[in-house]
Structure prediction request, 191 residues.
Amino acid sequence: TTRQLPPGAYTLSLDNCSESHFKPHSLHTDDLIEFPESVSSNILAEVERFWSMGDRFARLGFAHRRGYLFYGKQGCGKSSLIHQIIARIVDAGHVAFFCAYPVWFRIALARFREVEPERPIVCIFEDIDATIKQYGDSELLQLLDGNSQVDKVVNLASTNYPERLDRRIIARPRRFDRLIKIESPDATLRE
Prediction:
């Protein structure tokens, strides 16, 4: 056990005794370049602005959380964008959690919040449509804005198939405030 989880990205799980485990998750950002005024640059700036507004959320009585759903064709850069955001959060001394199995994720996240209630975190739900298809959406809905939601969090999700997502997931702003289409770079950006 530790009083504070070292900054980094982790996959959350439970063992056979229902103990929480935080397994380091590698990030791939060394070859990524952030171009000014690109979609990724604008989103990264927006997330940093969001973190600075915590006192405003508290003053108004709202949970300090935000959700982004990135969608687009395979290979357009959704995962790269997510890894860039996570790298910034980790560089600031915080943590990011990847969801592999929603039930374990919910339990481990609640245990993390018992130890570190104030630390900003990022929760990642890559290929959220596949996760919902395999495990259902009830646990995810509890995490996003139900009884299991947490404070001081940015939820990041990605999908290649937004049309497969139920409106309960994408039509409620408190679940995903921003639905952003990620497209391949245009000719100017590639140049």
In short: The CA atoms of residues 118 and 152 lie 7 Å apart.
